[in-house]
Design a protein that fits this description.
Elements (H helix, E strand, L loop, with lengths): L11 H8 L12 E2 L11 H9 L14 H14 L13 E4 L2 H12 L8 E6 L3 H9 L3 E6 L15 H6 E7 L11 H14 L2 E5 L16 H7 L8 E6 H4 L8 E5 L1 H14 L5 H11 L3 H21 L13 E5 L4 H12 L1 E2 L1 E2 L16 E5 L4 H16 L2
Parallel strand pairs: 1-10, 3-4, 3-5, 5-6, 6-7
Antiparallel strand pairs: 2-8, 7-8, 9-12, 11-12
Amino acid sequence: MNSDLLRLQPYPFEKIALLKQTVQPNPELPLLSLSIGEPKHPTPDIILDSLRDSLSQIAVYPSTKGTTELRQAIASWLIPRFKLLENGINPETQVLPVNGTREALFAITQCLVDRKKADAKVLMPNPFYQIYEGATLLAGATPVYLPCTEDTNFLPDLDAIDEQTWQQCQLFFLCTPGNPTGAVTPVSEIKKLLALAEKYDFVIASDECYSEIYLDEATPPPGLLEVATSVGNTDFERCLVFHSLSKRSNAPGLRSGFIAGDATLLKSFLLYRTYHGCAMPPQTQTASIVAWGDETHVAENRRLYREKFSAVLDILSPVMDIPTPQASFYLWAKTPIDDIQFTRDIYQQQHLNVVPGSYLSREIDGMNPGKNRIRLALVAELDQCIEAAQRIKHFIEAL
């Protein structure tokens, strides 16, 4: 077997299940969960109707590259959303549909890491989406965890990375808006990262799957391709972005997203995927075309999240230190006691699921940037989020 499998850590939810194994929750309260980041808003009818109407396509083998119509729909969405040049992205060579960003983030790492280099490093934020770490380990590279703390505005400090690490870097995972912090990487930092990628010749993989959930309707988060265009990198050299319909369109079960950017990298990735056998089902492609072409349901989605953020922050801000995120649907709240104890005890006393920040991070040099924080996913309906916030407040006030 692949010996690198032994290097993988349990997923956070496996650790939480073990943590709660010996705990009996309050039987007088129904279970509420703010743990898993699974959207609960209804999937738009236009997507469901398209799926039903296109089921006959199931008799056709799909192309790994996807249909021309889907790649064009994605390009037509990218250009205005991220202020690209007219015809600024080629759907023939710079766009590939994928079965969700999770699959693509893992696969691109296997494709891009040069295993012949024993010192190959992949840089990633800490805390992080655990796929970055697992993909790195199974590609035979070494993960480098970049602490994202309150002192760094919950972003990696690019200036703190030493010369040797940059020289050994093959891939840099950027997550903006961030999971779990909700922090948006500013244009100035993306420009700095682009200059470093050019100097040291590494690829930037920008996970932007939360980009369409933001609090200020007038200021959508910038993206890697947008900033690359602004500095004249219109071929998107060393740049790859990952987007999904899971959060944007409340369709996590559709498993539909895309990767876009550097045509040379995508040519090799297409070859990899052809052998990997991961073509998107035809009916999913048809439904995805409809989804990428509609912004009405996305704006309504943001409105619902803004409503929940406002209500929950009003309840919790008096008793917790919670930075208001710029985007995503998470709160990265500071706990008055150890985050793991907080998670276990609030489940026992209030029958509420949260995620301890320590489980989303790695301890490096004696410091875990997720310690004494919890991630709250505001994915449930408004009344459930309000009830959950009130339970957290009662729990803290009783400490």
